TrEMBL record:
Pfam families: DUF5105
Protein name per the record: DUF5105 domain-containing protein
Domain DUF5105: 55-231
Entry-linked InterPro entries: DUF5105
Species lineage: Bacteria, Bacillati, Bacillota, Bacilli, Bacillales
Amino acid sequence: MLETDSRAKDKTVIGYIPFQVAKNKTYELHYQPNVYKNDKKADEIIVKINTKNFKDDQQQIKDAMNAYVQTVFFGKDDTKYMALVANDANKDKAQMKGVFIKNMGSELDEQLSDEQTNQIYEAFERANREKGSVTLKVDTVLPDSAVVEVTPKVLFLDDMYDEIEKLKDQFIEDNRGKYSNHDAALKGWYVYMAKNIGEVFKNTDAQTSEDSYKIKPQKEGNKWKVDSQKSTVNYDCEGLLSDMTGGY
């Protein structure tokens, strides 16, 4: 049952109420106005609906969301991106890379050059592209918006702890007595990691996230735009971005 509300005289409200329906089926929508005239309740309003001629955008929305994920998150070339997605792919890719570098730790950006951090990110993206995937489910479709449930299967940094410790032990063994102070040794470790962490990514299996995220693309002309802006009110998109960059 829908909840009731009231409106002041001469005030109106316009919006959408989504219902789960099947194609080529007929339905009746019953609406009981909560108003009285001469102590008699207003008659029930019945709206008959036939979905036979309804436009079903579910596949287009799913294709748009998949094109966004494949292009931005996995670094693939999806032929449907330009036709269906309104986002600036390069801008969203840059945001994703920034989140990944942050997830790897603040010292990474301090100790390495842009070229070296790019090397690490590209190795991570490559491994995620080879092993990762997403499951998409269109939850709600409205004329100018939709809700798509996204469940990622990707690499998580927590699963790499043992492999990184092995890499660190190997660095110590290979460079024993080489560095005169801690700062130099730390710098050397990060350079070594940048060169070799790709093997850690290769040796890590993708895992299905414990969470699914409800992403809400909006219609812009003939395309769909994913709200990729990082903010506390855009919790699901931020959570998905976190999972896609290692899970922190």
